[in-house]
Queue: 2 jobs
Job 1
Amino acid sequence: MLSISGVHTFYGSIQALRGVDVEINEGEIVSLIGANGAGKSTLLMTVCGNPRAAKGSIKFDGRDITNMPTHEIIHNGIAQSPEGRRIFPRMTVMENLQMGATTSSPEHFDEDIDKVLELFPILKERASQRAGTLSGGEQQMLAIGRALMSRPKLLLLDEPSLGLAPMIVKQIFEVIRDINRLQNMTVFLVEQNAFHALRLAHRGYVMANGQILMTGTGQELLADEKVRAAYLEGGGTA
Amino acid sequence: MASITMDAAGSNSKMRDHAKEVLITGFIVAMLAVPIVGFHITDVTGGVGLALRFKEVAAAAIVAMLGRIGLIMMREHIALMLVAALSALVAGAIALQLITGYQFPGDTRLPFNDPVIDWLIVVVSIIYAIRAAWLTSHKTGTQESREKAMDQIGAQVQKLSLLLGPILLICAILLPMMPFAGRRLVDVATLVVTYIMLGWGLNIVVGLAGLLDLGYVAFYAVGAYSFALLANHFDYGFWICLPLAGLFAASFGVILGFPVLRLRGDYLAIVTLGFGEMIRVILLNWYEVTKGPDGLSSIPRPSFLGMPFKRFAAEGQETFHTFFNIDYNSGHRVTFLYYVILAMAMITNFFTMRIRKLPIGRSWEALREDEIACRSLGINPTNTKLTAFGIGAMFGGFAGSFFATRQGFISPESFTFIESAVILAIVVLGGMGSQVGVVIAAILLIGAPEFFRELQEYRMLAFGAGMVLIMIWRPRGLLAHREPTMHLGERRRWFGLFGSAKPATQSGGAPGS
C-alpha cells in the first residue's frame, strides 16, 4: 500500500535519511523502532512531504506522492497523528475532531464521530472542554481520534506513548490494536517503546543513523538478541 | 532578642525600598510633566512667549508620590482604613469644590485647572477608597484568583452577549430617534460604528486567523481611494462603487498575502506595517492620479434609492425630503449615513459569526493554533491565509468607501499608521476573536475620547494609561472568552431543527478548503 524506496532526506546540509526502504501492506501494523535521532520521525514526516525527499520515491496506492504538497498527500487517504500530539489547545475536543474531518465528506461525519467517541469514551465526557485542558493521555487519544476522523486508508502514528504513564500507554496500544482488527486499518507506528511496539506489530523495522538495520515480524525482532540488547534491556518488560 | 533586631533591620530596609519607590515615581512624573504641562504659551507684547509652570510640575509630582504612598499602603495592608478615609476625603473635597464652586481657604486650585481632570481625580479617589475598604474586609485575593474572577465575569458577559448583542443593536437602531440625540451624538456614533466595522474586519485576520496585521489601514485607504476615483472618473454612485471598492481592497489583500505567506508573528507584523506605509506613500506621491497631499474632493454622497439628500433637486430628480413630503433637514443625511454604516457593520458581524462555523472559518482558527497540525490534516495553509487576508481586506475596503462618502474629501493624512494602531488596539483590547469585545473597546477608544475632546493633549495620555491598565488586569483582552462553534448536544438538535434529510451538512466537516 505504501512503498518507500531509496529515500534520502536532508535538513539543510545534514543528512537524516540515507536510502530507506520500507514496505507497508494493507491491513498491517508496521512498527518502526530505533533510538533518538535515528530518523524515525523524519521518515514519517517525509511520507507527508515535509521535509521532502531529496532522492528516492514514495508511492501510496500506486500513486507517486514524493513531490506532492502535504495537504494533497493527506487528501489521498493518509492521516497522521503528529509527534507531540499537536492538538488545537484553544478549541474544544469536538472542534478538534471536526478539524480532523476536513478531508472527508460531511455525510458520514456523525457516524465517524460516534466511532471515535466509542473508541475513546473519555473524549465524550470532555467533548465541550478546551483541548489544552486535557491530560497528556487524553490529548494523545484526541490526536489519534482526530486523525481517524478523516477515514484514512493509512494511519501514521508518531510516538503515541511519548511522555505517558505505563497504564495509559497500554490503553492506547490496545486501542491501536482494536482499530487495526475491527476497522481493518493499516497502521504505521513509529515508537521508542520497542517492546510494546513490536508486540503489537505484524512486522517491524529497526532504524539507526538514517538507515534500516533489520526487518522481520514483530515476534522475530522481539526474540532477536541484538534488538533485545540495544532496545529492550532494562524497561523492556514493563 | 535576635529576631527582634532582625525584624527591625528588615522593616528598615523595607522602609528604604518604599522611600526609593516613592521618590522614583515622583521623579518619573516630574520628568514626564515637564514637557507635557511644564511649558505654557502666553501672550506677550509682539507675539507669543513660552512660560514655565514649575508649580504645576511640582504639584503633579507630589500628587503622584502621594498616590504611590497610598498604593504602597494598600499593597502592604498598612492602615487600609486610613487610605480609604483619605481617598474618600480627597474625593469629597474636590467634588464639593466642583459642585458648589466653593473655594477652600488658601490656593487649592488643582494643577490642571480643568473640571474633567478634577472629576477624574474624584472618580479615581473613590475607586481607591472602595478598593481599600474592600481589601480590609477581604485580606486575601491574589492576582490569580482575581484573574479567575474576571474570566468568570468575561464568560458571564459572553453568555449575556446572546442577549447583550440584540440589546446593543436595538439601542443602536433607536439611537438617532432619541430626544437627546443631537447631530453631534449621531456623528460620533457613526464614527464609533465605522471603527466597530473595521475592528470586526481586522478581527477576521488577527483574531480568527492569528495573522498579526499592522497595516490594515492600507485596505481602508484602498477602499476609500478606489471609491473616490471611480466616482470622479466614471461618475458611479456610492452603491455601485461599494462592492467594487471591496473587491479592489480584497485583491490588494491577496496581493499582500502572497509574499508574506511564509512569515509568521513579528516578521509578518513588520511586513504588513511596511505595506501600510507603502500605500500611504504611493497615495502621497502619485500626484497625477491621487492628487497627492491635496487629496480628492467632491466625492458624491450616498443617495436613498436614487434620491439625494439635497435641499434643491437637480433637473429631473426628486430629493429625499420632497419624496417623503417632509421639511428639508440636513440632519437626515447624517442619520441616513449612520444607518448605512450600522447595516454594513451588522453584515460584517453576521458574516464573521457564520463563517466561524463553516470549514473555512474553522480552518482559520486551527491555523492560528498550529499550522503544522493543520497541514497534517489536509488543510491548504496558502489558500486559507489568502482568504483570511482577502476577506479581512474586503471589509476594510467597504469601510473605506463609506468613510470617503461620509467625508466627501480624502487625503493620505487620514490613513496614517496611528489608524492601524487604533484598529488593532480595538481588536486586542476587546479580546481577540470576541465580537462583543470589539464593540465595547471601540466605544471606549473612539467614543469616549470624542466626548472628552476638551482634554485635548491629555487624550493620548489617557489612551496609554488605559492600555497599561488593560495589560495589567486583562492581558488577554476585555472579553477573552472563546465561544465554541459546536457542541456535542447541538449535533442532535440540528436534526430536530432542520429535519433529517441532510443533517450532517450543518454540523459536519465539508470537503477541504
Job 2
Amino acid sequence: MSTPHWETFSESVQGINKKLNQDYGTAEGQGSTEDPLVLAVADGHGAARHARSDVGARRAVALFAGHAREFAGFARSLVREESRGGLSRLMNYAQHDMPRRLVAAWQQDVLGHWDRMRKRSGAGTPPPDTADAEKLLLYGTTLIGALLTPQLFVAWQLGDGELAVVERDGRIGFPLAPAETDLGDETESMCSHRAWSLMRVHWSPVVGPDRMPRLITLSTDGLSKSFASSEGFPRFMAGLDRRLVDEGAKEVRAVLPQWLRQAARHSGDDTTMAAGYRPPHHHAIKE
Amino acid sequence: MSGMLDDGQRLTADDGEEIEVVKLIASGGQGEVYRVRTSGGDRALKWYYPPCATPEQRSIVQELVSRGFDDDRFLWPTAYVEGSPTAFGYVMDLRPDRFQGLPTLFQRKLRTTPRALLTACLYTVEAYQTLHSRGIAYRDISWGNVLFDPATGDVLVCDNDNAVVEGDSSGISGTMAFMAPELVRGDPGARPGTQSDLYSLSVLLFMFLMNHHPLQGRRELLIHCLDEPAEKALYGKHPLFVFDPEDDANAPDPVEQSTVLATWDVAPKILRDLFTHNFTVGLRDPAARVRESQWRDALRAVLDAVVDCADCGRQNMTQPEETTAGTCWSCGSTLLLPPRLIVVTPPPRAERHLRLHRTARVHAHHLEPEPVRHDYSDGSVLAELIEHPQKPGKFGLANRSGTAWTGTRSDGTTQQIAPGQTVPLRSGLELDLQGARLTVRAK
C-alpha cells in the first residue's frame, strides 16, 4: 500500500501586549505507519492564577505527541486483527483510555514541575505546599491533538480552539466543534476536575488513500477570534487550502507567520497553528 | 473525513428496496453508519470497513436478517445490502433521539436517577436473556452496544450484527475490557458464547450502577502504557476485582477512583453479593457466573425498594425486605422507610415487596409469578399511590386497571374499588387484584 506523504507546518505568534507566548504547537511526521502525522496545539490560560500556563501548554503538547505515537504503535499491532475486533478495541482506547491517560500524565508531569520549582526557589525556606488542585490551576491549558496513520485519523480536544478538516473534494468540516460554544473566556482545561471526561474525540478510520482529507489544521482560538464574523474562519480555511493547492506548502509556510501576526493583532491573543497538508501530486511512501 | 459511501449514492437491498445515501452519521469499530432514504422513510445503513467485510460476517448478517426478529429493544438488521461481494452492509431503524450512549453516563454528562438506572439494568438483562433463550449469543456486550433513555430507563441494543447462533465460531471476539478472562487469555477451547456473555453483562451492570469498571483498581493506575500485553494482564491473566474480599491488591485508589468507593458504599447488599460472586468465583469458573434470572430477581427487588429521602428528595437504593435503612447518600439524613406493599402472585406463588413512596405504582408484571418482560411504563400501571386532594399527607391506592378490586380492611369489612376509585392506605389493608393478594404493612 502506498501512503501520501504529508507536509507539515507549525507556527506560533505572541499576542499584542502579552508578556510571553502561552501557546505551543507541533506538527511532526509524514503520515506513514512508521512515522505517523502528529499535530497538536495548546493554549495556556491567560489569567494571573494560571501563571505557569506556558509550561502547561508545552508539556501538554509534548505528552500528547508521545501518547499519540504510542497509540499509533498500538494500532500497528492491532491492524492484523481488524476482522477480529482490533479496530473496535482501538476505538475504545481512543475514546476512553487515551483521555484518562493523557490527563493523568499531564497532571503528574506538571505537579512534578511544581515540586522542582518549589525546591529551587531561592536559598531560604521553600514556599508552603498547597493542594494539588491549586497547583494544577497554575498550569491550566487547552489541548487539541490529532493523529493520522494510513489506517486511522483520530483527534482529541479539550477546551476551545479549532480542528478544521478539508476533505479531498474541498469541503471544510469542524468535527470537534462543541454543540454549544463557550461563552466568554472560560474554557474547559487540562486542570479541570475530571478533565478526561470533558475531552471530545473524533474517530475516523481511513478507508483508502483516496478518501483521506487533504488538509488538517489545529489552531488556538487566537485565530478564530480574530475574525469579525463566524464566516470569517471557514473563509480563511478555504483560502489557506486554495493557496496550498495553487502555490504549495513551501510558499504558505513562508507567509504563515505574517498571517498569524495579523490575526494576533485583531484578537490580541497568542495565535498558533499546526497543520498537515497532503499535496495532490505527492511522493508516495511505500508501506 | 469522507466515508466509504458518497452522499446521494444509490443501492438496492436484497428485499428490492431502493436506498439513497443521505449522509454519514458515525464511524465505529467495524464500519460506518449512514442515514439513508427509503420508500418507507429515513433509516440507518451500516456499511462494513473492507477488513471487516468478510464472508463470515456476510453470513451472520444474512442469517440475522432472515430471522425477522421483531423486538423494540433491538436495532436489528432488517435488510441485507450489497455493493459487491466484499462491500456490504444492512439496513436498520434509526436511533431515536431520546436514547443516549453509556459513555455519556460514565462521563456524567447526563441527568438520570437510581430508578432509571436500575430499570435500564433490568431491561438490559431481559433483552440479552431474550437473545439467549432463542439460542443466540451476542458475543460483544459492551458499553458501546447499549443505549438508554435516562428518563425512563428504556434500553436499545444496537450492533446486533455480532450475534450468532450459540456454537458458531466466526467473527468478533469482543471488547477487551468486557471480555471474559478465558477469552482474553485465549484458553484452549474457550469461545464467545452465552457463558462469556454473562460475564460481559455483569461488567456492564457494574458500570451502570457503580460508574466504574470492576477490574480497574490500583493496578490499572500503575500501568504506564495500556498496550495489548497490559490489557491482557489486567483483564485476562491476572484479573482481580476491585472489591475482592480476600485480596485488596487491586482496591480502588481513594483519590483517583473515589467514585466507585462511593457508589459501592451505597449499593444494597443483594447487588454487592452478586457482583462479588461474579467477579471472584465467576472470574475463574464460567459455569458459576450469575445468571440473567438472578440479576433480574435482584434488580427488580431493589427497584421496588428505592425510597426518596424525606429531606432532600434524592432517590436511595435500599436492601429489599429490610425494615431499617441507612442514611441518604446525598444529604446524610436518616432514611425513613415508607409503608410496604406485599404482593403474592397467583400460583406458582411469588412474593414482591414494594415500598410505597409518593410516586409508587403497581405494574402488570408485579402480579405475574414469572413475567416474561418487566414493563415500568405508564401503559402497564394497575395501581398508583396518590395524595388526597383535600388532606395533604393522606395517601390512597388508586385503581388504574380495567377491573374492580376487592378490599378487606383489618377489621374484616370488605369494599369494592371500581376502576378510577381510590382506597385509603391503611396498615393491614388487603386487596384482591386479578388473583393476586396485596397487603399493606407499616414497615
